[in-house]
Design brief:
This protein has helices at 29-45, 103-113, 121-129, 138-154, 207-218, 250-259, 316-324, 331-354, 363-371, 378-387, 397-401, 412-431, 437-457, 463-481, 486-497, 555-562, 628-642, and strands spanning 20-25, 50-55, 160-165, 169-175, 178-183, 188-191, 193-196, 222-224, 242-246, 266-270, 273-277, 284-288, 501-505, 509-515, 518-524, 534-536, 538-541, 568-572, 578-585, 593-595, 601-607. It has 17 helices and 21 strands. The strands form 6 sheets. It has a 6-stranded mixed sheet, with helices on one face. A 5-stranded parallel sheet has the order 8-17-9-12-13. It starts with 19 loop residues before the first strand and ends in a 10-residue tail after the last helix. It has 3 domains: 20-202 and 589-651, FAD/NAD(P)-binding domain; 207-294 and 485-541, FAD/NAD(P)-binding domain, CATH 3.50.50.60; 316-481, no CATH class. This is FAD-NAD(P)-binding protein. Residues 23-200 form the FAD-dependent urate hydroxylase HpyO/Asp monooxygenase CreE-like FAD/NAD(P)-binding domain.
Length: 652
C-alpha cells in the first residue's frame, strides 16, 4: 500500500525540540493533512531539524467532528471506497506523491492481517462487515483518521518529530521572528511558523438570531440556534412536541437520527420501503428551507465509463484568460455557462459511453457537436433532444438547483405527497445503476469547484459577484454533491409517511407571534402561499453557524482579530459601499498566508479550512480524482517550509 502495515499503531514523539519548529493549531483531518505534506517535502525544503507541534483539545486525527465520542448511529455521507487522506498519481502538486491506503484499503488490511478486535466489539463487527460501497459510521472513520495520524508520524523523515498538546491555543505573540503560541494550560510554544487548521468556527448568534432568541425567551419558547448537531442539547425537546426545523441539509439528517432512532425508534422493511416503529419518545418535526427538500442523495454506484476527461470546458484554458483580463468578472454571466457545460459534459460522457443503448449518436460524434455549441442555446437543446430520447437521461439544472420549482399546494397536508414523490424519485435515480450520469456530473462538479476556488482567489471576481454568486454556487454544490446516503433518505421518507416529519416546502419563513394566551413560532412557505401558518413552541436552526471572525468563540482567532493580526473579509462595491461581510479569515490564495487588518501578508502565519477565504471541498477526499484538498495542503505545507530559518536552497 506504499506505507507500513495498516494495522500497526504508533505514538507521537516525546523527544525535546531540536532546531526549527512549526505549530499546527487543529489536529483533525486538515491539520493531519498539512503534517503529511510537511513530512513529504521536508527532505527537499526543510531544515536539518524540525519539530511540529499539534495543538487540539480533541482526539488527534479525528478531531472534534470525527471524534469517537458521538452517537454510534451517525454515519459518514461518503462510501468507504471514496475516502482517503493520501496523495496518488492523479494529484498534480509540487511536492512528492506519497501513496497511502484509502479508508476501504485500510479496512481490508486491518481485517486481513491486523487486529480488528482492538477497536472494540462494535467497531470490530462493523469493520468485518463493511464493503467498498457501504457508508461507515463516523466512529469507524474516527479509527481510520487516528490510524492515519499514527502512520504519518511513524513515517516522518529523519530529523523531523511531532508533539501533541491536548489543549487549546489562546493567543500568538512575536519575539523577533519567533511566534509565541500561548496555550490554555499555561504553556508557551516558541515556534518559527504557525498553521491555523481549526475547522468550522463556533460563533455567537447573529443579530437576527439574537432577536429571535429574545422574542422566544419573552414568549416562553425554546430556540436552538445554529451549532454542531452532535453538540446540541436535544433533551429540551419533549416527546410529542411539535418542532419547527429550519434547514434540510446534513445537520437536519443528524437531527432526525438523534431524535428518532436515537430515542429508541427503529425502521423495519416494508416491501421495497421502510416502516418506522416508534418508541413513544419522539417529537413531530415540521421542516423547511429555501429549497424545501433535503440535499440530493449520494450516488450508490460507480462510473461505467471511467472518469470523464476533465477539465474540458472550465479548466485553465478558460479560467486563465478570465484571471488575466484585468477586468471584473461576473460568475453567473461569464463563468457559469462554462461551468454548466463542464458539469453537463461529465453527465453525458457517462451516459453515452456507459449506456450507449440509451442514446442515438456515438460518443465521438456527440462530443464534437456538443463542444461546438453554447450550453444555453437552442442548438444545444436541439442536440440533446435528438440524441437523448428519454427526458430523464437529460441533465436538468433547474431540477437540481430548485427541485420544488413550480410545486404549489392548497394546504400543508396536500403538499406532503408532492414533496415525498420528488424525494423518492431523486433517491431512485441515485441508487439505480441505470442513472450513473448523476455520478458523472458529480465528478465534473469537483473539477469545477477547484477552478472556481482559483478564480475567486485571483481577485478578479467583482465584489457583487463574490457577494451573491459565490454563495449561490456553494449552496448549489452542497445540495448536489454533499447529500446524505440513500438509506438515510429512505428513513426520512418512512418518518414522513408515519406522520413524524412534515415538509413546509420551498421559501420557508419564520416569525414569533405573541398574544394574550402566550407566544408561538409561526412558519410558512412559498409552496403553500394561502395556507394558515404552522405553529410550534420549539424552533431548531439545523445548520452550522455562519462563519464570523468578529463573532467567533474560538479564543485564538478572537484574540488575533482583536489585535488586528487576523482580518475578516468585507466585500465592497466599486464606490466603497459594503455589500457583504463574509465572516471569513482573509488569506493569500496561493498558500494560505494570513492577511492582517492593514492588508499585510504575514510571512510565518498561515490558515487553511472552511473558516478562510480559500474554499476547499472537504478535509479528506475521493481517491484518484486529483483532489483539490490534497493539492492545496501541499501548496500550504511547502510555503510553510520555505518560511523557516535554515530552509534548504531548493526553496529558491
Amino acid at each position: 500500500m506504499g506505507r507500513r502495515d495498516a494495522a500497526q499503531p504508533h505514538t507521537l514523539s516525546e523527544e525535546p525540540s531540536v532546531s526549527s519548529a512549526i505549530a499546527i493549531v487543529g489536529a483533525g483531518p486538515r491539520g493531519v493533512g498539512i503534517l503529511e505534506r510537511l513530512a513529504a517535502s521536508a527532505p527537499d525544503l526543510g531544515p536539518d531539524g524540525l519539530d511540529v507541534h499539534l495543538i487540539d483539545p480533541y482526539p488527534p486525527g479525528p478531531g472534534r467532528i470525527w471524534r469517537h465520542e458521538q452517537s454510534p448511529l451517525l454515519a459518514m455521507n461518503s462510501m468507504a471506497a471514496d475516502v482517503t487522506m493520501f496523495t496518488d498519481d492523479t494529484v498534480l502538486c509540487e511536492g512528492p506523491i506519497v501513496p497511502g491506503p484509502s479508508f476501504w484499503e485500510w479496512a481490508q488490511a486491518v481485517r486481513g492481517g491486523g487486529d480488528p478486535d482492538s477497536l472494540g466489539p462494535e467497531l470490530a463487527a462493523e469493520l468485518r462487515a463493511v464493503t467498498a460501497s457501504t457508508f461507515p459510521s463516523r466512529r469507524l472513520q474516527s479509527a481510520y483518521l487516528a490510524w492515519v495520524l499514527r502512520e504519518v508520524v511513524a513515517a516522518l523523515p529523519p530529523g523531523m518529530r511531532a508533539h501533541l498538546h491536548r489543549t487549546r491555543a489562546v493567543d500568538i505573540a512575536e519575539d523577533g521572528d519567533l511566534q509565541l503560541v500561548r496555550l490554555e494550560n499555561g504553556d508557551t510554544l516558541r515556534v518559527d511558523a504557525v498553521v491555523l487548521a481549526s475547522g468550522h468556527l463556533d460563533a455567537t448568534p447573529t443579530d437576527e438570531e439574537r432577536a429571535l432568541a429574545a422574542g422566544a425567551a419573552d414568549a416562553g419558547l425554546t430556540y436552538l440556534p445554529p451549532e454542531q448537531t452532535t453538540d446540541s442539547d436535544l433533551s429540551v425537546i419533549a416527546p410529542g412536541e411539535t418542532v419547527l426545523v429550519r434547514g434540510l441539509g446534513l445537520a437536519f439528517i443528524d437531527l432526525i437520527v438523534l431524535l428518532f432512532e436515537g430515542r429508541g425508534g427503529r425502521f423495519e422493511p416494508d416491501g421495497e420501503d421502510l416502516r418506522y416503529v416508534p418508541s413513544g419518545a419522539e417529537p413531530r418535526l415540521v421542516a423547511g428551507s429555501p429549497r424545501g427538500m433535503p440535499y440530493h442523495s449520494k450516488p450508490h454506484y460507480g462510473l461505467r465509463a471511467g472518469r470523464p476527461p476533465l477539465p474540458r470546458f472550465f479548466g485553465p484554458a478558460a479560467v486563465d484568460p478570465l484571471i488575466g483580463s484585468g477586468r471584473p468578472v461576473e460568475l453567473r454571466t461569464q463563468a457559469w455557462p462554462l461551468m454548466a457545460k463542464e458539469i453537463a459534459w461529465g453527465w453525458y460522457h457517462e451516459l453515452f459511453v456507459g449506456h450507449p443503448d440509451r442514446v442515438r449518436l456515438p460518443w465521438p460524434e456527440f462530443a464534437a457537436r456538443f463542444a461546438a455549441i453554447d450550453q444555453d442555446s437552442p442548438a444545444m437543446a436541439g442536440l440533446i433532444a435528438d440524441a437523448v430520447p428519454d427526458p430523464v437521461d437529460r441533465i436538468d439544472f433547474t431540477a437540481l438547483d430548485q427541485p420544488l420549482a413550480g410545486v404549489r399546494a392548497q394546504d400543508f397536508a396536500a403538499l406532503q405527497p408532492l414533496v415525498r414523490d420528488r424525494i423518492a424519485e431523486d433517491l431512485r435515480q441515485h441508487v439505480d445503476p441505470a442513472h450513473t450520469p448523476h455520478l458523472g456530473a458529480f465528478v465534473a462538479m469537483l473539477s469545477v469547484y477547484a477552478e472556481v476556488t482559483r478564480l475567486a482567489g485571483s481577485g478578479v471576481l467583482s465584489a457583487r459577484s463574490r457577494a451573491a454568486d459565490l454563495g449561490w454556487w456553494q449552496s448549489f454544490f452542497n445540495a448536489v454533491a454533499s447529500g446524505p446516503p440513500g438509506f438515510r433518505v429512505r428513513e426520512l421518507l418512512a418518518l414522513s409517511r408515519a406522520g413524524y416529519v412534515a415538509f413546509l416546502g420551498a421559501g420557508m419563513w419564520v416569525d414569533v407571534a405573541v398574544d394574550d394566551s402566550g407566544g408561538v413560532f409561526r412558519a410558512g412557505s412559498a409552496s403553500v402561499p394561502g395556507a394558515p401558518p404552522v405553529t410550534a413552541r420549539v424552533l431548531v436552526d439545523a445548520r452550522l453557524p455562519d462563519p464570523s471572525v468578529a463573532r467567533t468563540t474560538d479564543p485564538l482567532i478572537a484574540a488575533l482579530f482583536a489585535g488586528g493580526a487576523v482580518s475578516e473579509e468585507v466585500l465592497r462595491d466599486t464606490d466603497g459601499t459594503p455589500l457583504r461581510n463574509t465572516g471569513l479569515v482573509r488569506v493569500r490564495p496561493a498558500d494560505g498566508a494570513l492577511i492582517d487588518a492593514a492588508g499585510r501578508v504575514h510571512p510565518r502565519r498561515f490558515a487553511v479550512g472552511p473558516h478562510t477565504t480559500v474554499k476547499v471541498a472537504g478535509a479528506f477526499t475521493r481517491p484518484g480524482m486529483n483532489a483539490q484538498s490534497l493539492r492545496y495542503n501541499d501548496a500550504v505545507a511547502r510555503a510553510v517550509l520555505r518560511s523557516l530559518p535554515g530552509a534548504r536552497a531548493a526553496a529558491a
